Amino acid sequence: MRVVDLDRDMSDVIPTGLTPDSEFLFGRMTELTLDRTLGTLREGHRPRVLDVASGVGQDSIALAERGADVIGVEPSSRMTGMATLFAADKPGPMPRFVRGWSDRLPFPDASFDAAFCKGAMDHFDTPERAIEEMARVTRPDGRVVLAIANFESLACRVGRALDDFRQDWLRRGPLRSRRGYDAPSDHFTRYEPELIREQAERHLRVDHFEGVSLGWGMPGWSKWTARMPLGVARGAVASLDRIGRQWPGLSDVIVLSGTPLRSERTSA
Ligand SMILES: C[S@@+](CC[C@H](N)C(=O)[O-])C[C@H]1O[C@@H](n2cnc3c(N)ncnc32)[C@H](O)[C@@H]1O
């Protein structure tokens, strides 16, 4: 049974008072996702882009400001309402926000140059169907981009190993009550690199598989970055990000992109 709060807003998702590690992670995840979405599209043409699970619309608005013709699709009326309000006082052509589910996108085949989904697939009850749908609505040489948290990141592995050690050897409880390596209660899927690659490769010719940030959520790391001089903290998280790019399997977020494969269903 599908259980989604259609009145949900982002108050439990958007962190207030970002520390340098979080600021970097969210900023870089967004930058890479949007760059890959627009990346190889034809110059001099206004690309038509679909933002799947667009939330409060900040990414759709950013792409519209970069010249794309954007539709954000999102089931929550509260979020689409907020997105429409945020877009209302911006200059220039703005996105259109429509209500809809990722597993049945209300658009014809090949009607977009690109489709992306950022930080949301783990909330879907049928995420692979969402990838198939994104491939269907994107033109054959267009782009599909997926950005997802990695629950087998280095930070998750270290956090889990420390808690296991405390529990098994010291007979103590976990370091934090909210264990970052466990998927939150509103996630249906606990994504790790092999799973997202496997699901994506059934519907996309994957040409980029990239890591963003390293060490986010490592016990104590966030507090350390907040105490360091800002320039030092920013330098440290950027250096770790370079390592995460080399080893995407250990990074905090995976950004994957490719071109649609035509399935029997989508080419019918
Ligand atoms: C964590 S938010 C991410 C929003 C946005 N992409 C961002 O990066 O800020 C997850 C979003 O997924 C939406 N969602 C949940 N289930 C969905 C589904 N089956 N189809 C489409 N969107 C869904 C929620 O309403 C919510 O807006």
Mind explaining what this structure looks like?
- The protein starts with 19 loop residues before the first helix and ends in an 8-residue tail after the last strand.
- Strands 3-2-1-4-5-7-6 form a seven-stranded mixed β-sheet, sandwiched between helices.
- It has helices at 20-39, 58-65, 77-88, 127-137, 154-168, 193-201, 221-227, 230-246; strands at 48-52, 69-73, 96-98, 112-118, 138-149, 204-212, 253-260.
- It has eight helices and seven strands; from the N terminus they run H-E-H-E-H-E-E-H-E-H-H-E-H-H-E.
- The protein is 37% helix and 18% strand.
- It is α/β, with parallel strands linked by helices and 268 residues long.
- It binds S-adenosylmethionine (SAM).
Summarize the model shown.
By secondary structure, the chain is an alpha/beta fold. The protein has one domain: 3-Layer(aba) Sandwich (Rossmann fold), CATH 3.40.50.
Provide the fold topology:
Elements: H1 20-39, E1 48-52, H2 58-65, E2 69-73, H3 77-88, E3 96-98, E4 112-118, H4 127-137, E5 138-149, H5 154-168, H6 193-201, E6 204-212, H7 221-227, H8 230-246, E7 253-260
Parallel strand pairs: 1-2, 1-4, 2-3, 4-5
Antiparallel strand pairs: 5-7, 6-7
Helix pairs in contact: 7-8
Bound molecules: S-adenosylmethionine.
S-adenosylmethionine (SAM) binds at residues 4, 8, 13, 53-55, 59, 74-76, 79, 101-102, 118-120, 123-124.
